[in-house]
TrEMBL record:
Belongs to the UDP-glycosyltransferase family. GO terms for molecular function: UDP-glucosyltransferase activity. It comes from Elaeis guineensis var. tenera. The gene is LOC105032821. It holds the Pfam family Glyco_transf_N. This is UDP-rhamnose:rhamnosyltransferase 1.
Length: 474
């Protein structure tokens, strides 16, 4: 009888910026022959992208019903469903998934648990039944390295290493010599408020990160040596555990969907078809950060001043009343007609990025979006706001593959600086070096054979670890 398939359980935090890379890892592991259980709430599981049909027999979606919490809206099962001030309630609800998770462990007995930063209780429950855990880090190695060694995070709730937001605005001593990776003041203030906020169980996110690292057998990082090898070395040195890069997990190329587009996107892609190659900048800021009215308006005026053709995918802001168009400055769409398009709501991002007329991206520098965008060699203009975005932006600029929009003295983004950065990245002769480096970087980010090799190395680690456990248990 052949050896039974390795069975891994994946448990992401309830944010699509975490669930999507966990899903990409699930697909990659299933393609390598592993059996995968993907654990999330019912509504989140239903909203995830479809998996390839030939892998459906190897990936099982396991529903963990989210208990109701006072103040948390019905059907709110991910951070995208709620304003920022409700996220602590979602964390409280997530902590109540412990019992159904323990039931899953008892019934299915996976060989490994691949968990997120949040789930220290899942690591403990898995350990109690002899299931080793691997912390799957969805952030870049650069951002992970910045956080520092676990013992530094442990003392005084992490505030010994990071006593104030200002302490996060210069590179820590453990980063590579000459590194420019650090937060700007506004980024640090936003992160500090969330990272050190007490949630249920008397823990901050910093506490949870430390417990995730301490409790795991190894860390699997969504990264590759070819892009940030020196920061992977730092993670390995400061965490003193096996650190296994699993590659960048690039999403599959978009299928040809021309016949399936609705009328709106049919018109938009028709407009893209008429634009010169590499001339249009795609503008999108993801699902986690909600742009303020001032930020939307400064973005609009910056695009207008730049004279660069643009396609802007804008989620309808909660502060906008009336029609979608009322979120934009008065007359903006009339003044930019023919040169730019604004689409409200969901956008087929991968299909847009793959279009030959797209040459750049103005975005928040989230790690997943960086991977998607650099896979096509586009020039990058970055406007980071929250979590790891600022750290990612500093490395992109350090490597010469992005222009960062400078904040004003008030720590806000302004139209003139936005227009200046767009001109530099998209059309000026000064930006040719940046555009060339972006194209060169695509040879790493789009190399599926390279990233498949990283997955194979990770699978080999899991198989070797299971086999060693079997030998020790006999």
């Amino acid at each position: 009888m052949g050896e039974e398939r390795l069975h891994v359980a994946l448990l992401p935090w309830l944010a699509f910026g975490h669930m999507i890379p966990f899903l990409h890892l699930a697909v990659a592991l299933a393609a390598a022959g592993l059996r995968v259980s993907f654990l999330s709430t019912p509504r989140n599981n239903r909203r995830l992208p479809k998996i390839p049909p030939h892998l459906t027999s190897l990936i099982t979606f396991v529903d963990l019903p989210l208990p109701p919490i006072d103040g948390l809206p019905d059907q709110a099962e991910a951070t995208v469903d709620i304003p920022e001030d409700k996220v602590p309630l979602l964390k409280n609800a997530c902590d109540l998934l412990q019992d159904p998770f323990k039931d899953f462990l008892a019934q299915k007995s996976p060989d490994f648990l691949l968990h997120d930063f949040f789930h220290h209780w899942a690591v403990a429950a898995a350990h109690d039944v002899g299931v080793p855990s691997v912390f799957f880090v969805v952030f870049s190695a650069t951002a992970t390295a910045f956080s520092g060694p676990p013992e530094a995070l442990m003392e005084d709730g992490g505030k010994k290493s990071w006593p104030s937001p200002e302490s996060m605005t210069s590179p820590p001593e453990w980063l590579p010599s000459g590194s420019t990776v650090a937060f700007r003041r506004r980024e640090a203030e936003l992160l500090y408020l969330s990272a050190f906020a007490m949630t249920s169980m008397g823990l901050t996110d910093v506490d949870r990160m430390r417990l995730a690292v301490e409790g795991c057998a190894a860390l699997a990082v969504r990264s590759c040596r070819e892009y940030e090898g020196e920061y992977l070395d730092v993670v390995r040195r400061i965490f003193r555990k096996p650190v296994i890069p699993v590659g960048l997990l690039p999403p599959p190329p978009p299928p040809p969907t021309g016949g399936d587009r609705d009328d709106n996107w049919g018109r938009i892609f028709g407009w893209l078809d008429d634009q010169p190659p590499k001339s249009v900048v795609f503008v999108s800021f993801g699902s986690e950060y909600k742009l303020t009215e001032s930020e939307v308006h400064e973005l609009a005026y910056g695009l207008e001043l730049s004279n660069v053709p643009f396609l802007w995918a804008l989620r309808r802001p909660s502060w906008a009343s009336g029609s979608d168009e009322e979120a934009l400055p008065e007359g903006f769409q009339t003044r930019t007609e023919g040169r730019g398009v604004v689409s409200f709501g969901w956008a087929p991002q991968l299909e847009i990025l793959a279009h030959p007329s797209i040459g750049g991206s103005l975005f928040h520098s989230g790690w997943g979006s960086i991977i998607e965008t650099l896979g096509y060699g586009h020039a990058l203009v970055v406007m980071p706001n929250i979590i790891d975005q600022g750290l990612n932006a500093r490395l992109l600029v350090e490597k010469g593959i992005a222009v960062e929009v400078e904040r004003g003295d008030d720590d806000c983004f302004h139209r003139n600086e936005i227009a200046k950065a767009l001109q530099m990245a998209m059309v000026s002769s000064e930006g040719e070096g940046l555009r060339r480096k972006a194209r060169e970087t695509a040879t790493v980010f789009a190399d599926r054979d390279l990233h498949d090799k990283y997955i194979k190395e990770f699978v080999d680690y899991l198989l070797k670890t299971r086999n060693n456990q079997s030998i020790e248990g006999n």
